Amino acid sequence: MKFESTQWSPVSRASDALEVHLLGLVDFESALFLQERFVYEISGRQDRFGALLVCEHPPLLTIGREGSRADVRCESADLVSRQLEIRWINRGGGCIVHGPGQLAVYPIVPLDRLGFGLQQYRQCLEAAVVQTCQDLRIETNVSQSYPGISCRGGQFSTLGIAVKSWVAYHGLFVNVNPRLDLMRLAKPSQVEHRLTSLEAQRARTISMHSVRSRIIQHLAELLCYDQFHIHTGHPLLRRTRTKVYDYA
Question: Is residue 54, in this structure, part of any structural domain at all?
Fold first, then answer.
């Protein structure tokens, strides 16, 4: 692995590396804009070049193709008072609440050139979380019927994948240490479970950095990238003004 603190910019020559961008806390629309730019670039290439955006989001609800307004466990007036917006997204999966403490992982990769089908790709994302939890000594359970990964205390991770021209984007969300009262405003994909976090499961502090670094390493290996380069930020990142949220 080569670590670079400077910005990386695409070059015309062929590349088989995975370029990882650590974005920090960034609004959802800015992350979506970057994903769409990478989808456009990667779909026009012939190599195995891929990108991985890793970040956290301010509070927001997104609803995918399998979701509905009924998956939101509060009234519209409550959403207004909490300053929570709902964004309908063309990805798989249902309703997901995002917020600080939840790790958002967005691989933008050419599935056909990597040799992955959709089911195999989903299994790679799930395996990256499972292996990370093994590092942290947390037992997990993966459902064959529903997207998401659970532990003894409930569901802590879910998936929402989109594919365009065989380039995958959107991705994976892991509750590391978010506010659980916020996360539980959405129904879990496995209705018999409640939403939880890795920190709640271990009943001790878990750093976002430790989870993030492990997921990046496992995901690069599972997607068969021999090289991955880590960068801070991205030159095209557009940040909006940060809002202050108070749920007290």
Answer: yes
Confidence (pLDDT) at 208: 95
Query: What's the DSSP call for residue 72?
Result: B
Q: For residues 206 and 190, what is the distance between their CA atoms, to the nearest angstrom?
A: 24
Tokens of 88: 């309908």
Domain holding 92, by residue range, is: 16-232
**CATH number where 223 lies:** 3.30.930.10
- The token duo for 216 is 């990046």
Residues in the chain, pLDDT under 70:
1-13, 190-192, 239-248
**Residue 200 belongs to some domain of the structure:** yes
Q: Determine, yes or no, domain membership for 222.
A: yes
Distance between CA atoms of 110 and 47, rounded to whole angstroms? 9
3-class SS at 162?
Answer: strand
Question: Model-level pTM?
Answer: 0.89
